[in-house]
Design goal:
Length: 486
């Protein structure tokens, strides 16, 4: 594609060189520069891409987009000056791949908890409705039946456009995407055209990155502020920050709720470990998904599908065929009668939601044993909060390692223990080795007891000192159960 085509709708401050050059690839990582590529110099949190302009030119870049021209300009290279390279990158990527987000209906889901579940459930609902779609989530990236491994909640904007272009090529009409606060803050959704944006909730998380809750909220809100007037924004009005998201949006505003009046209103009529009988907008249906948080997730799915023009009865039929999302309230019963639940809950709110959902269902004749930890190199302030929640709402809490990363697991556990209230001291123990912690839970459990293993969900690794070791909670439970029941 020629440079002038790539620069459409991008405010350019200055161009030096031939703007009719043909570009073969877009690159913002100087290590990946190839012959005839366009290098975008982005100022990152760790390094400034402007420092690598010269080396990129040496490697064969024929064009450079930057905020400042280098002192020495190569006459065989075209230099384009813009106000913000990071924002320009999104529009360059959209133009390079033929603006794929305008050729299908792109749906973005943001919030602290539920992004993965809602995005994946939407993908599955539309499959049940007979449509091929794309999915960009934490767990996986899918184009129809094709699976691509996911590395970030929100991939970089070049990758997003490349995936969406593939989806268009393969006949997909819809794409469902998790939109993280990191992705919004780092302009990874710049230049994308969203048809519908959904908000789940906003609770304590990622304060290691955003520093304050207010900054975190403003970042999430920016997603809605930047929607076009042809889009729909649908928010959870039971969440105290739900209406904040819609304050400045130009999009058509819609709401969903269980407790208050809303465009999409839900009620749970029956709930147990096998599923739920629900009522959405006066229509009853059964789902094998369970837990109050899943009522919210499904209600948002229902609202989004309705806003995309589908009949409510056919949406509910498609929802009733859904299976549970991997690592999200995933349940299985051992042949010894112990009920196991594996869930990704790794924030105070998510842990409280899952424990409340279990306690709402259980008869209290069964004990609830919770195995959990907190990730290293992440927000420290949520650790004591999770220690308090787990010990308060479980019969026994076993504090263990999650992904300690570069931190000492014993120090993480100490910070979690700091939140345990004196009356709950007898309700917890600490075992740093996650496998041993799960083993302890199985040993302690009796028939009909419930064992929740929280924090990792779908993940099949444990990151220790920067190295990922294979570790799968479900696999470990099954392996230990077989060994211990012999």
């Amino acid at each position: 594609m020629i440079i002038t085509e790539l620069l459409k709708r991008i405010p350019v401050l200055e161009i030096h060189g031939d703007d009719s050059r043909e570009i073969s690839e877009l690159v913002f990582d100087s290590r990946k520069v190839t012959e005839n590529s366009l290098y975008i110099a982005v100022r990152g949190t760790v390094a400034d891409g402007h420092s690598y302009i010269a080396s990129s030119v040496e490697k064969g870049a024929k064009a450079v987009v930057c905020e400042e021209f280098p002192e020495t300009l190569n006459e065989n290279v075209t230099y384009v000056k813009v106000k913000d390279s990071s924002k320009a990158l999104g529009h360059l990527a959209s133009n390079f791949y033929g603006n794929p987000s305008q050729k299908l209906k792109l749906i973005g889901v943001t919030g602290t908890n539920g992004k993965t579940s809602v995005s994946t459930l939407l993908f599955d609902v539309f499959k049940n409705l007979g449509y091929d779609s794309a999915l960009l989530s934490t767990v996986e990236i899918r184009i129809g039946e094709k699976i691509i491994p996911a590395t970030h909640t929100t991939p970089d904007v070049i990758t997003i456009n490349k995936i969406l272009a593939q989806a268009v090529e393969e006949g997909c009409e819809f794409a469902f995407m998790e939109v993280s606060s990191h992705g919004i803050n780092q302009n990874r959704i710049e230049g994308l055209h969203f048809k519908v944006a959904g908000f789940t909730n906003l609770t304590h998380d990622h304060l290691d990155y955003h520093k304050t809750f207010d900054e975190y909220l403003k970042t999430k809100k920016r997603f809605f502020d930047e929607l076009e007037n042809t889009a729909v924004a649908i928010t959870n009005v039971d969440d105290k920050n739900g209406m904040v998201m819609l304050q400045n949006t130009k999009a058509n505003k819609k709401s969903y709720a269980l407790k208050t009046m809303a465009d999409y209103h839900g009620k749970s009529l029956e709930i147990d470990f096998n599923g739920m009988l629900l009522n959405f907008n006066g229509k009853e249906f059964w789902t094998t998904l369970t837990g109050k948080f899943n009522v919210y997730n499904l209600l948002l799915v229902f609202g989004i599908a309705s806003e995309l023009g589908f009949e409510q009865d056919e949406i509910l039929q498609a929802i009733s065929k859904l299976k549970r999302v991997s690592g999200r309230f995933e349940t299985f019963k051992s042949d010894g009668g112990i009920f196991f639940i594996v869930d990704y809950a790794h924030t105070p709110d998510a842990l409280e939601n899952i424990l409340d959902s279990i306690n709402d269902i259980r008869t209290k004749n069964e004990r609830l044993i919770t195995v959990f930890g907190c990730g290293g190199d992440r927000d420290h302030s949520k650790r004591p909060e999770m220690g308090n929640i787990a010990t308060k709402k479980s019969t026994l809490a076993i504090i263990t390692s999650d992904n300690p990363r570069t931190e000492d697991p014993a120090q993480i556990i100490k910070e979690i223990e700091a939140g345990v209230e004196p009356q709950n001291f007898s309700k917890y123990t600490s075992i740093p080795d996650r496998k041993e912690a799960i083993k302890m839970a199985i040993k302690f459990a009796e028939p009909r007891d419930i064992v929740l293993v929280a924090g990792k969900g779908h993940e099949n690794y444990q990151e220790i000192n920067g190295v990922k070791h294979h570790f799968d909670d479900k696999e470990t439970i099954n392996e230990l159960w077989k060994l211990m029941s012999k």
